[in-house]
């Protein structure tokens, strides 16, 4: 039996979690409200907030798990990719804590962890996990990738965005409409009362399995700029339809390439991961593929979609059993493949 503490601080969520083998014991997350009014994450404010949050969040994770720090077998932390200043807080804390407790330190790649979140189990519940190889659409604020997952640590990115990420597109559309950050969940909510066919926006034409979202964002911006010239209340009066139409277009673009990838690689085990996999429209679209294309669909529990340390602890566990440890010299990386 191994008890692993996971620490996540790559962007604007400070999180700590305890996993017992693959079973979740606790998952504490402190969100940072400080970015709301800026329409995006302000890196310097994020790292300062991580510094304030990290000790209380770790304390909470241990308390919720009902364990003392002396019982921990290893500390897993996000080494990258992410914001350097934010990553530094989690990395430094993890290194110091592991040194102090004299237990192994394990580095985790944030994007791998989003995918491996599918292997987190709840106490007493049987878990249905994808078989290797499977495809995972990883959609977050910083990434949009189709990943061919051959094994826990054998992953290949077969398609990715050449500009904006899907989450970033949700957030920018929200910002254009004057909504706070992060806009994804707000658009999701507004879209429930809107007509997805109300407005049409330009869809990208990118060859192969890659994505592009910057044209869609610009199309949304120009469309609204023209409408606002004749009606200053246009956004306020149409925010549900605008949200539904924008969400519909983003999902259509995401699903088109995912279907192409499934066909090309003859794989019908398909998963989604990352913050945007919390989106109700995307979850619905995926579920429909079961009937339409005979996919076996894997949608992570809501709490493991956006950034969380449970996925870091779980990934740490898979490395722990293979003795893949990290030394005290490890420093964070802002960019890096999976
Ligand atoms: O994975 P994540 O928490 O952080 C990164 O690693 O980027 O993803 C955050 C992104 C944000 O862009 C946020 O707006 C988006 O996920 N997001 C959503 C929803 N919940 C979070 N986008 C659409 N619908 C949602 N329900
Ligand atoms: Zn993430």
Identify the notable features of this structure and list them briefly.
338 residues; alpha/beta; Nucleotidyltransferase, domain 5; five-stranded mixed sheet; 9 helices; 42% helix; 19% strand; globular; binds 5'-O-[(R)-(carboxyoxy)(hydroxy)phosphoryl]adenosine; binds zinc ion
Structural class: alpha/beta
**How widely separated are the two ends?**
28 Å
Number of strands: 10
Largest sheet: 5 strands, mixed
How are the strands ordered across the major sheet?
A: 3-2-1-4-5
Helix content, binned percent = 40-55%
What this model shows, in words?
By secondary structure, the protein is an alpha/beta fold. The protein folds into 2 domains: 3-126 and 304-320, Nucleotidyltransferase, domain 5; 134-302, Nucleotidyltransferase, domain 5 (2-Layer Sandwich). The chain contains 9 helices and 10 strands. The chain has helices at 43-65, 84-101, 110-116, 166-176, 183-191, 214-230, 234-265, 280-293, 310-320; strands at residues 3-8, 13-20, 23-31, 74-80, 105-109, 134-139, 144-151, 154-160, 269-273, 296-298. It has a 5-stranded mixed beta sheet with strand order 3-2-1-4-5, with helices on both faces. A 5-stranded mixed beta sheet has the order 8-7-6-9-10, with helices on both faces. Helix 4 (166-176) packs parallel to helix 6 (214-230). The longest helix has 32 residues, at 234-265. It is globular. The two termini are 28 Å apart. It binds 5'-O-[(R)-(carboxyoxy)(hydroxy)phosphoryl]adenosine and zinc ion (ZN). The site of 5'-O-[(R)-(carboxyoxy)(hydroxy)phosphoryl]adenosine has 20 residues, from helix 4 and helix 5.
